[in-house]
Amino acid sequence: MARTRSQRGSVMHTHLVPCIGLVIAIAQAGCDSTRPNPEYCGGNGVCIDPALPFCDVDGSQGPAHTEDTCIAVTCTPGEFIACRGAETLSCNSTGDNFNVEMCEKGCTVGSASCTPCTPRETRCRDSIVEACTNDGVFVVAETCGLGCVDTATTEPHCAYLEPKYLSNICDEPSTANQITFQTSTYDTNLDMNCTGGIVPQNGGPEICVVRANAISIPQGATLTIAGTRALAFVGDASVDVEGTLDVGAIGALDGPGGGIGNNGTGGNIDSDAKGGGGGGFATPGGHGGSRAADGGAGNGGGSSPNPAILTALIGGSRGGGGVGGGGAGGALMLVACRGKVTIGGTVDASGGGAAPASVSSKVVNGISSFVGSPGFGGGSGGNIVIQGLQIDLHGRLFATGGGGGSGNENPFNMSAGTPGRDGGPDGGGAGGSTVRSNGGGGTGAGVGVTGAGALPSPGQAQTGGGSTTPGGGGGSVGFVQTYTPEGVTPTRAPTAQSPMLQPNLVVKTR
Fold first, then answer.
1. pTM
2. Which tens digit of pLDDT belongs to each residue from 103-140?
3. DSSP per residue over 352-375, as a string?
4. Which of 4, 52, 168, 236 has the fewest CB atoms within 10 Å, counting from its CB?
5. Alpha-carbon distance 344 to 216, whole Å?
């Protein structure tokens, strides 16, 4: 509320605010400097003479600059005159007195009014975060893609993800601006590569977090991931894969974070009775062959629960047969805390192909003999998890199973059979085909699963009847899962996918 004439602020939370000095008063036409100041307000702050209506309480107005002096006022109606402390002084409607208002947060010359905000104060306005400048004016600080959040325990901010498996990772924006990967191998076992920290998990591998405002793999670049830790790329604004990101197994070598689930069994060296079973994940792994029947080993790894219901980020499973079993596909998470994940290139988390049957010479009691080992089981595909405020998938995604190793038709042939082929783009299943990843060829080779459309069972290995050795079973497919906030529909139109994507799920925001 404003008052006129000479009233002081002891009555209300408003005061009469004078011009700042004689020069300012003349420039603003706020005070008549030609008029004498013969009257004093006295202790009551009241000016009786209509020609001298304003009590200059601190001597900052009239020509005499005398405290508690009644002065004349000539000003432009409605004009802002000056600030005095936390008070504003403005011209009244008739141009012959000053209105004074006490401001709760002070007076700001720059805004010519009461300060609307405290410098560095923030607030939500619709889907915008506004911040207060040093002049006490709210300006747009950030436009929010998913609304502005203001709670009793947090400052106003744009909503951001609370990612599954890494719920707190987005709380603080990254200090790194941009990471662009060129063709190279990136080892998650090197602590220095985990720029966003190393996160332990109960029931799962450690997660190596790579953190930046924006993370990208440009077109033509291939980034191959090694190491035992699972990998998470966490960008604030974006994660963009236009080249190739490979977290798949390579032969018997697991992809990052793989090898924890339902591994296949059997296929031990010096035992040609059973081929190794394929690793299980989204489906059971294929069974290795036996001397009596195709798939007679019955030793494929069992299927696992959907990782969406688990609390740990895990990869795929190994094929059976020990060191020759196909490696497990890796565990990969791509997160855009406040923006979009885009995949226009290729992401591969497929299982590895297994070693084939082999024959070796063995001497027992001075008698030489030939000993055969069966084919090993293929590894399962891994686990690709994509989370963002927005998601655009128009590239290729693979988490196919690796092929089982072939048996050996000739026990006197010292050379090995044919190995199972690694899953992924080169293993079959491109373009959403229902063709399984190829096995190694030859007798007894199992095949891994692509899983496009309805999930087919991994290939069971053929028998190694007579004097031959049986082959190993193929590996299961893995999982590809997307998460967006409630009400956000991702763009999921990959040009090739194997397996099919799981239904999109909801992720929380903060």
1. 0.75
2. 877 787 776 788 778 888 999 988 999 999 887 788 99
3. PPPP--EEEEEEETTEEEEEEE-P
4. 168
5. 11
